[in-house]
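FORM 7B: Structural annotation worksheet

SECTION A. Query
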Amino acid sequence: MEPAVTGRGPSPDRPLLAAAVAGEARGTIEVAGRRTGAAELLTAASAVADRIAGAATVAVHATPTPETVAAVLGCLLAGAAAVPVPPDAGPVERAHVLRDSAATLLLDPGGGVALPGVPVVPVDLRARSSTSWPEQPAAGTALVVYTSGTTGPPKGAVLSRAALAADLDALAAAWAWTPDDTLVHGLPLFHVHGLVLGVLGALRVGSALRHTGRPDPAAYAAAARAGGTLFFGVPTVWSRLAAAPSTASALRGARLLVSGSAALPAQVFARVEELTGHRIVERYGTTETLITVSARADGERRPGQVGTPLDGVTTRLVATDGTGADVPRDGRSMGELWVRGATLFDGYLGPGGRVRPAVDPDGWYRTGDVAVIDPDGWHRIVGRASTDLLDCGGFRIGAGEVEDAVRAHPAVREVAVVGLPDPDLGQRPVAYVVADGVTEAELVAFVAGTLSVHKRPREVRFVDALPRNALGKVLKHELAAGTAGS
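SECTION B. Predicted structure
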């Protein structure tokens, strides 16, 4: 049996809001140009907690505003499970989230939401309360975050306060994140990346936060000139920064650049290093596991690889054929990544508020992601087992390897490879490409120089843009279903 890969040790046991309640934050919290001190934010959040006291589950209309930060913090103070609702959610999705979570209130930072059947509570950042809220049990639910729902209706992942605390402490250790930092990002506040890492992380560590409203390279550059030290972004942000040399140069004074939520192309990694002097730290996680694998601030960074397990996290690589056999950590063999540790969610929210566990009896969560692990424990994420592991004529093909080969052509800006049904091969690799001045035959001939015959795309389809979600992940199911616009 191939041994599992384990992080160095458990995270410290400390209440989730210890730093915020103790007034340890040294900097201000700024969201979309509006700034407030940590102490003022805490009293505004306490006023929110006063208004929702006794509610078990509270939805939050998660706009990129300081009111959203106060709303989520108020839920945590009061011991209510906060349910972030995307501000651009359509009526069907919003109704599903509210119904499925059984939220009894909706906190509205913007003051314009009206929903039948659910009382709406406005959030006023000027409100103040001196109520002293006791620390809630570590096992209590902090957040119910709904997954993207690419294979059905979004599911509510139940995240405990203990899981959030363990993950944030492990990340602080990995990234040398301290109260002296100023965190900069412009990520949505209804996902783990923007809300947990990007807001609760700053509050737990005690660092300043500058949320730019949108993940715009010019805004990141301005924040860097103003003293920003730690920058979070998705690959789309770094790709746009790489295309703007004069803007990118402003980030030379930063301490650390971190990328996540999707794979970072090696070309973008290299270009950002050229322009800023920084080798980007890549990390991996899911809504259900939080962040589990990362490169370190004091260690090496490898393009296309996401590092090693965080403190308290163990990973396994398991065969995708249903046998449960462990896959060798040889840097070549692909398998499904399994994760175990203190950062895992409690399960999915089920009928009647019951939580349905999603780990096996030994505590392993099957991520559904395909990975390769080097002998020294470094992980490379190939993609989703459902969309990125192709069965072509008896061969197993990783879509990511094909995408890297196509993307290396200088005319290609974006590429996504999916397996489409084929009566002879089972699946045939089809590349959806955003490019200028290159033909299908030229691309196929180009990748022939690096890929085996069975791995080469059988077809190239040129599109104007690839469909993506709010975090920049390509929606391959739309490409496979033929529902993506061109």
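SECTION C. Observations
The chain has two domains: 5-9+16-380, 393-481. The first strand starts at residue 5 and ends at 6.

SECTION D. Sign-off
Analyst initials: ____
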